[in-house]
Amino acid sequence: MHATAVNTVIFDFDGTLAKLNIDFNQMRRVVGKLVVRYGIDHQTLQNRFVLEIIREAAALLRETSGENAERFRHEAFRIIEDIEVEAAQNGVLFEGTKELLTALRRKSLKAGIITRNCAKAVWTVFPDIASYCPVVVCRDDVTHVKPHPEQITLALSRLGGRADRTVMIGDHPLDIETGRNAGTWTAGVLTGRFQADDFMLAGADMVLPEASDILKQLGHNPF
User: Fold this and answer.
1) What is the pLDDT of residues 40-62, one digit of tens each?
2) What is the C-alpha to C-alpha distance for residues 112 and 99, in angstroms, rounded to an integer?
3) Per-residue pLDDT tens digits for 178-190
4) Dihedral, 139, 115, 203, 158 alpha carbons, nearest 10
């Protein structure tokens, strides 16, 4: 990555800038029970992320009843939002997150956050987020979440940024896929459960110990 070419940084949130402590196994179990209650064979939706389970189950229901599909979506999103917000109440920002966002702003670098989480959970763990980051795109804001490029595209349109001058940073290979889909540079961070090899296999341009290390890569001194 050519540091002088990059002037925009897009971050994932949970696992990259904060820890929300969401129990995804619980979320998957509860949504799975809801899927079964609506008469769908849950086994056909195995090995998918929860949001994709909801999307595909709703699509199946829509084939016979649009009303049932919308009712299911409403119930499912209420369930996962409740789980996210409850977890976020015990969540924490990673040390240095506010300083990182402040440093980027002082260096006249654009910064945004995109997340598959709901806005309420993000604001619960980071209530003054708007004071540090001008653009936050949650799942509530888009039709398609990561790894679809819509969230990055929306963030860049609000920031006035260009994909070829942007680096997408996240703690999951899905974040790398998202950046590649949107045409940005990509960086994995080792603050989640994935290792450097996982990010390189996903096609990351670089792997960093933590998000704040992007400042060094962009040619700036850390805080």
Assistant:
1) 987 878 788 999 999 999 999 99
2) 15
3) 999 999 999 999 9
4) 80
Q: How far apart are CA 197 and CA 119, in angstroms?
A: 31
CA–CA gap between residue 160 and residue 218 (Å, rounded) = 19
Task: Give which of 111, 115, 123 is closest to 218, Cα–Cα.
Answer: 111
In the structure encoding, which two tokens stand for residue 208, read together? 């960093």
Three-class HEC string of the chain: CCHHHCCEEEECCECCCEECCCCHHHHHHHHHHHHHHCCCCHHHHCCCCHHHHHHHHHHHHHCCCHHHHHHHHHHHHHHHHHHHHHHHCCCEECCCHHHHHHHHHHCCCEEEEECCCCHHHHHHHCCCHHHCCCEEECHHHCCCCCCCCHHHHHHHHHHCCCHHHEEEEECCHHHHHHHHHHCCEEEEECCCCCCHHHHHHHCCCEEECCHHHHHHHCCCCCC
pLDDT at 204: 97
Which residues is 8 bridged to in the sheet? 110, 166
Short-list 153, 127, 121, CA closest to 140? 121
Report the C-alpha gap between 55 and 35 in whole angstroms. 11
127 touches 39 (CB < 8 A)? no
Spatial CB neighbours of 86, under 8 Å, sequence gap ≥ 6:
none
Q: 0.85 exceeded by the pTM?
A: yes
Q: Is the dihedral of CA 129, 134, 140, 145 positive or negative?
A: negative
